[in-house]
Amino acid sequence: MTSIRRDILIGLVCLALAAALPLAMPGRYVITQSTLFFIWAIVVVQWNLVLGIGGIFSLAQMALFATGAYATAMLGFYWKVPMLAAIPMAGVITVAMGMLIGLACLRLRGPYVALLTLAIAQVMYVLIVNDTDCFTTVGGCMPLFGGVRGIGQFGDIGLRALFPSKWYIAHYYVGLALLAVAVAISIVVIRGPLGLAFRALRDNPGYAMSRGISRFKYQLWIFAVSAFFTGIAGGFYAVHFRVVGPTVFSFSTLLFLIAMIVIGGLGSIWGPLLGAAVLMLADEGMRELSDYRNIGLGLLLAVFVIAWPNGLNGWLQRSLTSRN
Amino acid sequence: MAEAALEIVDASAGYAGRIVLDAIKLSARKGELTAIVGPNGHGKSTLLKAISGLVPVTSGEIRLDGSRIDRLRPDQIVERGVIQVPQGDLLFPAMTVHENLLMGAYANSSGSAERLDFVFTLLPKLKERRNQTAGTLSGGERRMCGIGRGLMAGGEVLMLDEPSLGLAPIVIEQIYEVIFNLRREGRTILLVEENAERIAEHADMIHLLDNGRIAWSGLGAELMARPEIVETYLGV
Amino acid sequence: MDVLIQIVASGLTLGAMYAVATIGLSLVYGSLNMLNMAHGAILTLGGYICYAAIVHAGLHPALALLAAAAVCALVGLLIYFSAALPLLRAENFETNIFIATIGIGSVIENLMLKGFGPYPIPQPLAVGGQVVIGNVHIPLQNVFILGVAIVLMAAVAILMQRTSAGRAIRATSMNREAAQLMGVRVGRIYAQVLALSGALAAVSGIMISSIATLTPVMGGDPMLKAFIVCVVAGLGNVYGAVIAAIALGLLEAATQYVLGVRWSFATLLLLVILVLIWRPYGLFGKQQVVRL
C-alpha cells in the first residue's frame, strides 16, 4: 500500500468516527470542546508545515491566527460584510500577512527567525492592547482593534439562526469539515512537490539548488499555504466564540500548541493531530489540577524534545514496524 | 631503530555508520618524521582526527608509549602530549597571535614562557605580528601561527594535517624548512601530505593511504624509486 | 537641558540592566549556539530568591544577592546536564534546545507562580535617597544599579580577556573543534558558561525588580529586550551586545519621553524587525558563509 493511500485511509476512518461522535455523545460540553479541538488541530497541522516540513522556525502562527480572527471580526463590524464572505476574505488577508512575514524571514537563519516572528507577534499584541484612543463611539468607546476587550457583535454564519437549539452541533460539523480540508492540504503538501523540494533542500542543498529548487520561492509558498487555513481557522474561531480579543496572543496558548506538535511528532502528517488530541484530552482529564497545567505542559515539552524527539508518531511507527 | 611513540593497531573509524578508515596499522617512531600520503578524500584527515579523539574509533587500538588513548576525550589526548595542527589552521580569528599561542599552551602551561621564546625564535614573523588579530594574517603567516600554536603545547607527538595546503610554492618551502628543522632537532612528527614528492627524501617512513586502507608502507627514499606505485596511487 | 539629563540618566540605568541581562544570553549563544528561552524565568527566580533570602531568611542584602546568584548558577548547571548535554549528542541541537528551554522556562515560571503568588511584591534590596544634577532628581537606586552593572561588566571583561578560563570560553565560541585540539574540555566550558549566565541573570533580575516590582512573569519583557539587544548586535557578540544594550536603553528612555510609555516597546520591536530585515546578521555581526 502506498503511503498516500494509507494516509487517505487513516483520514477517512478518522473522519467517519468524528462524524459519528455527535450521535454517540450529543452533550453540549463534549461537542463544543471537540469544536475547539478542530480549530487548534487546523492551526497545528498548518504550523507543522512551516516548522516540520519547511524547517523554518516561525513562532508567528498565532499571530496569523489572530490576523484571520481580527480580519473577520473587523470586516463584519466596520463594513458589515456577511460572515460567509468575511471568513474567506480573512483567509486571503492572512495569506498576505504570512507572505510578508515569510519575506521578512527569507534571509534569516534558525534562531533569528524565531526571534523575528516572536517580535512580530509581540508588536501586534502591544499595539492592540495599548491602543485606548476611541476609533468609534458607536455603542461605547472602541479603539480600532478593540483594545483589551476585543471586538464583538460582528455577525454570524447563520447556523445559530438556522438551528436555534442545536447550533453547536452544526458548528462541530463546520469545524470538522475545515479540519478535513486542512489535513488533506497538508498531505498534498508533504507528499507532493513542495514537500519533496524541502526534503531535497534539507538533504542535499547544493544539488537541490543546482537543479533550480529555490529556497526563497518554496519558503514563500509554504508560508502562504499554511497562512490561508490558519486564517480561516481564526475566522471560524471568531464566529464560534462571537468575540475576538488579545488573549489569542497569550504565551500559554503558544506553549499549548507547540507542545501538541512536539509531543505528536514534528514534521509528520498525523503526529500534530495526534498530539492535539492527546493534549486536549489530558487537559480535560486534569481540569482540577489546572494550577499545574503549565508546569506539566512545560515538563512534557522538554521531556519529549530531549528523550523522544520524534514524538508519539515516531514511537507508534517504531512499534508498528517492529511487530511486522 | 627507535621505539614507537604512537602506534595505530588495526584501527577502524568513521562517521555515522560509514567506515572511513579500515583496519589501519602504522606507527610513528620517536624522533622520526612519519608521513602519510595519498589522494584527497581517502581518510588522511580522518586518521588524524581519530587519533585526536574527534572521530570515534570503532575497532582496534591507538597507543601512546604503550598505553591506549583511543577511548579518551580529545582534551585528555592533548594532555597526554598528542598535539594536532589541523588542516586549514583553525586559528581563533578574533584573538591576537599572542593569545592564539597562549591557547596552544592551555593544557600544559608549565614552561610555556620558554616555549614562547622558542616559537618566536623559530618563527620571527609571529613576534612581529604578536598583537595583531589572527584573522588579519596572510595565508603563510596563518600557517606559521598554527604550527607555533601546536609547538606551544610542548607535546610528545606533533601531527600536522596538510601544512602546504593552499599556499604559494615559495611559502610552502619556508613551511617545510621549519618542519624539517624540527625533525632534525629530534621531534616526533606525524605529517599528512597529498604531494609525496615534496617530502619523500626527508621522511623516515611513508605510508600510502588509499580508500581508507594502507596500500603501501616503506622508507621515504624507497617510494620515489617505485614509479609504478607513485603512478597508481598518486597519479603524478 | 534638564530633559536631556533625565533621559540620559534613566536611559543609562535601563541600558545597564539590559546589558547585564544580555551578557549571559550572548555568552551562551556564542559558545553553544543555544538560544536559552528560560533566561527570563531564571532572571525572575533571581529576584524572588533575593526577596525570600532577605524577608524570610533574614539574610544580609549582600548575602542575599550572592545566594540568588548561586541558586541561578545552579539552575544553569541543571539546564546543562538535563537538556543541553543530551541534546548535543543528537541532531538539530539549535531547534531542539530552543523548544526544550521554552518548556523549562514555563516550568520555572509557573513554580514561582505557585510559590509566591501572582501579585506584585516590592524588592527589599533597594537603596533610598537621590542625587540632584541641575534640576533633576535621580534616585540613588539608579546610580547604585549603574555602579553594580559597571563592576559586573568589568569583571566579566577581565575574566574573558585576561584569564586562561576566559580565553578558553572565547576559543570555544570561535571554533569548537580547534578549542578541543588545544585540550579544552568543551563540556566543562558549556557548564561554566551556563552557570555564569544564570548568575548574571539573577543579578539583573534583582536590579530590574528593584525599580519595578517582582511578579512571576516579569522576566518575559527583559528577556525579549535582551534578545533584541543580541539580535541587533549579532547573536553571540558579547561586546557588541553591551554597546547595543546601552544604546537601546537610551533609545527607550527617549521614546518614552517623546511618544509616551505606551508606544516605546512597540517602537523598539519595530526597530529590531527593521534591523533584522536590513542586516540579517545584526549590526555588528558578520555574515557566515555557508559552504556546501
Automatic annotation (TrEMBL), chain A:
Spans traversing the lipid bilayer: 36-57, 62-79, 85-105, 112-129, 172-198, 218-239, 251-282, 294-316
Location in or out of the cell: Cell membrane
Membrane topology according to the record: Multi-pass membrane protein
Source organism, top-level taxon: Bacteria
Main localisation: membrane
Alphabetical keyword list: Cell membrane, Membrane, Transmembrane, Transmembrane helix
InterPro entries, per database record: ABC_transp_permease (IPR001851), LivM-like (IPR043428)
Protein name: Branched-chain amino acid ABC transporter permease
Taxonomic placement: Bacteria, Pseudomonadati, Pseudomonadota, Alphaproteobacteria, Hyphomicrobiales
From TrEMBL, chain B:
Database matches in Pfam families: ABC_tran
PROSITE patterns: ABC_TRANSPORTER_2
CDD domains cross-referenced by the UniProt entry: ABC_TM1139_LivF_branched
Gene3D superfamilies tied to this protein: P-loop containing nucleotide triphosphate hydrolases (3.40.50.300)
Entry GO MF terms: ATP binding
Source organism (scientific name): Mesorhizobium humile
Keyword Cell inner membrane included in the entry's annotation: no
Key words of the record: Amino-acid transport, ATP-binding, Nucleotide-binding, Transport
Protein name: ABC transporter ATP-binding protein
InterPro entries the record matches: AAA+_ATPase (IPR003593), ABC_transporter-like_ATP-bd (IPR003439), BCAA_Transport_ATP-bd_LivF (IPR052156), P-loop_NTPase (IPR027417)
Signal peptide: none
ABC transporter domain: residues covered: 6-236
Family: Belongs to the ABC transporter superfamily.
Membrane-spanning segments: none
UniProtKB/TrEMBL annotation, chain C:
Highest rank taxon of the organism: Bacteria
Swiss-Prot/TrEMBL keywords: Amino-acid transport, Cell membrane, Membrane, Transmembrane, Transmembrane helix, Transport
Segments passing through the bilayer: 6-29, 41-59, 65-85, 136-160, 189-214, 226-251, 263-281
Record flagged with keyword Cell membrane: yes
InterPro entries xref list: ABC_transp_permease, BCAA_transport_permease
Membrane topology category: Multi-pass membrane protein
Keyword Oxidoreductase: no
Compartments, as annotated in UniProt: Cell membrane
Pfam families: BPD_transp_2
Family under the similarity heading: Belongs to the binding-protein-dependent transport system permease family. LivHM subfamily.
PANTHER family: ABC TRANSPORTER PERMEASE PROTEIN, BRANCHED-CHAIN AMINO ACID TRANSPORT SYSTEM PERMEASE PROTEIN LIVH
Protein known as: Branched-chain amino acid ABC transporter permease
